[in-house]
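Researcher: I'd like a candidate sequence for this fold, 425 residues long. If you have to choose between options at a position, lean toward the conservative one.
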């Protein structure tokens, strides 16, 4: 019933939403007397806050139309190269003959859209041929699309790697760390030619026991039945996926915001002040962030509950007990895929130590094939977005990829910056 009540409240607020929109347009009219007065700006700011508070934020676009390769601006074209019921494999095709290492970015399926990694892709594009997993909102998938669980996620990763072919590097951001390691372990055990030369795991819960957080504590203190009875709901009849059992995105968003409620409240208070002051640049920055942050998607109940149980309650991967489609996952079988882990000092989602645990599990790798990048002064989001990502983490990541790439020459001169805050695992 919660999902239905949420939809009812949203629909009930639409008259107020449309009124706020009309008020905004009227106050921006060039014919309005005193249109730049403080009173008019106050009324406009109030109308915008009401409009945003009653809006359903739609899925954003990547909007990466160009990039720079070797100092030259070139066009970028997005194309879906493989379309699955629950995921589209999206390619950022660059209009250049330069043959750079191919990278599959596995975006998290944790409530936000893959566009949350826009900054990740943007920074990698000048140096890599980039693909990304663009996960589909579960409420948009009809029941005829079948279920989608943890094993299906692993199968998708394996299928994408085989589709892209040998010498495809993998970057897993946050949640995908466990299924990506599982996929590569299975490929290694089968000596599959689709084994990637490198896997980069960024802020992921490889061993959630290593460093407790609010996320891990919640999973530890509640039985799986509590999650199933409390946060799993049926999709309303107004969506293509009507009747599908899901973990709604609005519940995940509420949880994320409660973890840093003061910061989010302050951000919206400052947005209101910027609007009154006419500080359009600051207001635009806040708008852009929350347009992305507030756009959420639903997860299938199978995937959500199986992830809670296997990753955050029974810790099957670090205990050597994880099975995918009945096959035991053994990271020690990995010998050809070099491992880079990235952790943020201030990460309160996957705290330092959780991702580092991957090095012990991948006991078949040589010391030269393993490296841990510990980034000081950044939280979870800062690992894959923002200045530290662009200036320090990304250069170290592309250096690692080039070093272990099988089909390309050494790094072009002046193209790579040395990692400055890295330390060995």
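Model: Candidate sequence:
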């Amino acid at each position: 019933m919660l999902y239905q009540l949420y939809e009812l409240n949203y629909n009930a607020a639409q008259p107020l939403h449309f009124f706020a929109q009309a008020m905004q347009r009227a106050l921006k009219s060039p014919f309005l007397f005193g249109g730049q007065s403080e009173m008019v700006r106050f009324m406009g700011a109030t109308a915008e806050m009401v409009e945003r508070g009653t809006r359903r934020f739609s899925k954003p676009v990547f909007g990466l139309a160009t990039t720079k390769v070797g100092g030259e601006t070139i066009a970028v074209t997005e194309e879906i190269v493989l379309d699955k019921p629950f995921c589209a494999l999206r390619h950022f095709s660059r209009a250049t003959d330069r043959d750079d290492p191919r990278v599959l970015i596995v975006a998290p399926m944790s409530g936000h859209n893959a566009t949350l990694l826009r900054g990740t892709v943007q920074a990698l594009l000048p140096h890599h041929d980039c693909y990304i997993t663009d996960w589909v909102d579960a409420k948009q998938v009809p029941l005829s699309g079948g279920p989608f669980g943890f094993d299906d996620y692993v199968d998708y990763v394996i299928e994408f790697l085989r589709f892209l072919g040998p010498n495809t590097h993998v970057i897993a951001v946050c949640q995908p760390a466990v299924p990506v390691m599982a996929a590569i372990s299975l490929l290694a055990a089968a000596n599959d030619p689709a084994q990637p030369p490198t896997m980069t795991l960024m802020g992921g819960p490889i061993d959630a026991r290593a460093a407790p957080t609010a996320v891990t504590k919640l999973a530890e203190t509640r039985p799986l039945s509590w999650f199933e009875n409390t946060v799993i709901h049926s999709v309303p009849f107004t969506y293509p996926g009507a009747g599908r059992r899901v973990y709604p995105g609005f519940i995940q968003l509420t949880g994320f915001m409660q973890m840093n409620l003061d910061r989010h409240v302050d951000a919206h208070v400052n947005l209101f002040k910027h609007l009154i002051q006419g500080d359009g640049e600051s207001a635009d920055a806040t708008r852009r962030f929350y347009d992305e942050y507030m756009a959420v998607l639903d997860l299938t109940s199978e995937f959500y509950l199986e992830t809670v149980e296997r990753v955050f309650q029974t810790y099957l991967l670090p205990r050597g007990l994880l099975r995918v489609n009945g096959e035991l996952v053994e990271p020690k079988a990995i010998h050809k895929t070099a491992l880079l882990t990235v952790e943020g000092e201030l990460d309160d989602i996957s705290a330092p130590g959780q991702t580092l645990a991957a090095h012990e599990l991948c006991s078949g790798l040589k010391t030269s094939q393993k490296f841990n990048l510990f980034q000081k002064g950044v939280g979870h989001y800062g690992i894959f977005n923002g200045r530290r990502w662009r200036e320090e983490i990304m250069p170290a990541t592309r250096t690692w990829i080039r070093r272990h790439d099988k089909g390309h020459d050494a790094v072009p001169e002046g193209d790579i910056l040395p990692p400055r805050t890295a330390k060995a695992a």
